[in-house]
Known about the structure:
three-stranded antiparallel sheet, 3 strands, rod-shaped
Amino acid sequence: MREERGFVFSGLSLLLIFTVVLLLSAFLSSLRWGSEAISLKIGGRKVAFAGEDAAYNVRKLAGMGILIDNSVLRDLGLVYLQYGGVPVVAWRMENLVYIFASRTWGPGENARCVKVVDVGPL
């Protein structure tokens, strides 16, 4: 008959294993929370850059004398959505162009950038 051996935890080793499991779960939870915070910060910078860049492009177009109407602004917003993944909505009311860039990741987790650019009369 073959001899079968097993491993039996003593009371102290069982307490050490429980401690290690609890510390590991706390570490992984804080690591996940930290990575979510970093991704939100990166996403917020992306939204802010899209809003600033859209305002810069509208100023440059107006400075070159190009007519800026709502169809041009709609196409500009589609470019930011397609290439940057950030929805940018812009519209013109009289001499002002309103630019709104925003992105939502979950409840209470969103980033917004609002710009107003004076482009002169039509």
